[in-house]
Amino acid sequence: MHGHYDISYFHEVLRNVRWVKLRNLVDNNFKDVPTKRGVYIIRCNKVIRRAGGDDEYGILYIGSTEATNGLRSRIKRLYEVAIGKRIHGHSGGITYREFEFDRVFKLDELEVGWIEEEQLNKPSREVEKVLLRTYAYLYLDKPPLNLAVMRRHHEIHHRC
């Protein structure tokens, strides 16, 4: 492990994720997603060119949850915010909607993967930070829906 990134752990986590089409989760009202704490990842399942190289996983978002209803609640919230059913509640969903990511990444084509905290043997937020820092180290960028600019989207939106 170098600093706060860990390349082998990054690949190990991504190999252990079970990927499910987002549309299948929506069709089943997200009942297949556990209500436990954990880390979740949204991907497009195609290569994304980044400054530091090609992201073969196609990762769009890395997040974690320790909330009530856990992973199910967070993944469902991201989807609802992305489609405009909710205005707030998930920065990745806001970024998807505000910057019209559907021009390139259709929601129906996205995949979601998760790992429950008990399988991680570490707190979810700690794993999320390691995954994000490692992604940034490998690709010299953040996953596109992890854009920090949208966390202050009202300030930016009103200035334009």
What distinguishing features does this structure have?
alpha+beta; two-stranded antiparallel sheet; disordered C terminus; 4-stranded antiparallel sheet; single chain; 7 helices; 160 residues
Describe this structure in words.
With 160 residues, the protein is of the alpha+beta class. It has one domain (7-159). 41% of the residues lie in helices and 18% in strands. The protein is built from 7 helices and 6 strands. The chain has helices at residues 7-16, 22-27, 70-83, 91-98, 117-120, 124-139, 153-159, and strands at residues 18-21, 38-43, 48-50, 53-55, 59-65, 111-116. The strands form 2 sheets. A 4-stranded antiparallel β-sheet has the order 1-6-2-5, with helices on both faces. Strands 3-4 form a two-stranded antiparallel sheet. Helix 3 runs parallel beside helix 4. Mean pLDDT is 90; it is low at 153-160.
